Amino acid sequence: MPQTRSIDSLAEIIQSFEAYLLLERGLSDNTRLAYLSDADKLLRYLVALAIPLREVETDTLRGFVNALYDVGISTRSQARIISGIKAFFRYLKLEKYLETNPALLLETPRCGKRLPEVLRIDEIDAMINAIDMSKPEGQRNRAIIETLYSCGLRVSELTNLEISRIYDDEQFVVVNGKGNKERIVPVSPMALEEIKAYLPDREKLAIKPGEENILFLNRRGRRLTRVMIFYIVRQLADLAGIRKEISPHTLRHSFATHLLEGGANLRAIQQMLGHEDIATTEIYIHIDRSRLREEILTHHPRNRHTYSPAGKATDAPADNAAAYSDEDQ
């Protein structure tokens, strides 16, 4: 049996991998940096799962790829990341860090399978700036877009979001996800500011019994429907000149994609999206809240990027405006 080298620290392995890519492979700067980023994503994923590098199997790598899909990374981007991972494990085998190469049987996804579009940050800004702030629902819609993007919420989680479950000082919200499972999601200061600015408008509504704690309401004082949220997002995309096929879920994918591109831990993103079972909210608060909040504060664009004030008021297209009455909004 061939002798393998002892595993050095992960930082040293990345450094030696970089030297290999630069000196022996002669790759371009873009490709080299991409491969290093791919390896770093995988290593931090393994650390979060407490899986030693020597114990990585093909199924472990498949789990990593599934996690990429789970947080909304496009098939094309998955294929590129897998290319970097395969290069990393070829290097580990070549340098005898590992006896076998678990990436040999790792399949690259077919690029024909499309995921929902991902919005750029400037496109999200353009949607927000397209909101007509002269209308009664203007500030509410601004808070809705910021909350969807800053928290990566599902539409049902947004429409059922309760005021009493927004924690300003700690900067997180508690939502009910699929299967009525609670989870905590960090929220950006920008989204909190938009929510606070909306609350005075909300207080003017004749709120229906049973809706007193629901954050986002229509003009009749009832919680917004999923269809109405879809309409708001599509209308703003049209006004902003965005020609992509988008929905409220696009903002959720954009949330995850921008966090991952910014360097956030893949496992942390999964937890923020609610893709992992959590025993109880109390346990989650004490164990993970600080770490997840650090992830989103460090890596979410809304904590590094500001948008311009709302643009000039713009009327909605006549054909879309006729689809819903003022009361629906």
Shape: elongated
Radius of gyration: 22 Å
As a percent range, the share of strand residues is: under 5%
How much helicity do the residues have?
Answer: 40-55%
Instruction: Report the order of strands and helices.
Output: HHHHHHHEEEHHHHHH
Structural class: mainly alpha
Tally of helical segments: 13
Q: Provide the low-confidence segments as ranges.
A: 277-289, 306-327
Q: Mean pLDDT, rounded to whole units?
A: 82
Strand order of the largest sheet: 1-2-3
Number of beta-strand segments: 3
First-last Cα distance: 70 Å
Describe the sheet with the most strands.
3 strands, antiparallel
Structure overview:
There is one protein chain. This protein is mainly α and 329 residues long. Helix content is 52%, strand content 4%. It is built from 13 helices and 3 strands. It has helices at 10-25, 29-49, 58-70, 75-94, 121-129, 138-151, 155-159, 189-203, 226-239, 248-261, 266-273, 281-299, 318-321, and strands spanning 166-167, 172-176, 182-186. The protein has a 3-stranded antiparallel beta sheet. Helix 1 (10-25) runs antiparallel to helix 2, helix 5 (121-129) crosses helix 9 and helix 6 packs antiparallel against helix 8. The radius of gyration is 22 Å and the shape is elongated. The N and C termini lie far apart (70 Å). Mean pLDDT is 82; it is low at 277-289 and 306-327.
